[in-house]
Amino acid sequence: MATINFGGTEEQVVTREEFSLEKAREVLKDETIAVIGYGVQGPGQSLNLKDNGFNVIVGQRKDSKTWDKAIADGWVPGKDLFEIEEALDKGTVIQYLLSDAGQIEVWPTVQKYLKPGKALYFSHGFGITYKERTGIVPPADVDVILIAPKGSGTSLRRMFLEGRGLNSSYAIFQDATGRAFDRVVALGIGVGSGYLFETTFKREVYSDLTGERGTLMGCIQGIFAAQFDVLRANGHSPSEAFNETVEELTQSLMPLIAENGMDWMYANTSTTAQRGALDWWKPFRDATKPVFEKLYKDVKAGKEAQRSIDSNSQADYRAKLNAELKEMRESEMWETGKAVRKLRPENN
Known about the structure:
The chain is an alpha/beta fold. The chain folds into two domains: about 1-200, NAD(P)-binding Rossmann-like Domain (Rossmann fold, 3-Layer(aba) Sandwich); about 210-345, N-(1-d-carboxylethyl)-l-norvaline Dehydrogenase, domain 2, CATH 1.10.1040.10. The protein contains 17 helices and ten strands. It has helices at about 20-25, 40-50, 65-70, 85-90, 100-110, 125-130, 130-135, 155-160, 180-190, 200-215, 220-235, 240-260, 260-265, 270-300, 305-310, 315-330, 330-340, and strands at about 1-5, 10-15, 35, 55-60, 80, 95, 120, 145-150, 165-175, 195-200.
């Protein structure tokens, strides 16, 4: 492990320098990794593991859209693509990558195949952290581990194909075999992580639910909508409002911030932009911090988890979700975005 100074605080991280791909293969050479679920994280993680030389199989419901997607991605029925129960039986490492609602539904089946010495792997701490609500309580004789890539499965796969890695957190909830650390780190390297930083199942789910509802999706959409609406209300065209709100940020500035940091961005803009950004960032922080504090409190209390469970278990959940997504998709801002994206040089 390497000791890295993050903003004055030292943390232990694992990189591919001290835990190589070759070492990861050696650790898992006798394992069969069964990836259960082929939705958000399943494709990226399983394909990366396969391309990295690990023994991987996929478990999915037959005759489903995701079964067909797995076949299209190169998985072969009867060879490395099986129905869920057969994959669970064959796997020594069970990568439980169904949605949170799907994990609750399938858990009674998974339990039957958790023989002593197996490893149960998650990419989200939800099921374990909120076990009183989900009913997911693993037996004491299996390793329970977590690798949580800090991005979508699509990003994980794309960055892998580009020769890059997506940073991931890792956690050990239960070490029944004495091999949990080596197993989890080997899997983290195998799925294509950049570096691995330690967390717990509880901290992972608290930060993840806060991030999804905050700066990663909920907050950023809210801020986009607020600025776009103000510009439109003051006579700016849809194109101008969208470019100033979304396009410049995502296409020009965010790549630079990712590469160099926000401090660099502040130092490399016009003096007018500098002055305005310095004057206004703290009022935005002060306005939103109480919202983040309430959000974190609700996540910690399990309120957000219960809302998700209650919502996802309703018979008309999918119809309601599609209606909400349709409202966003057909908003003026994102209809404008669709037109703007078509006009990008790479699309012409």
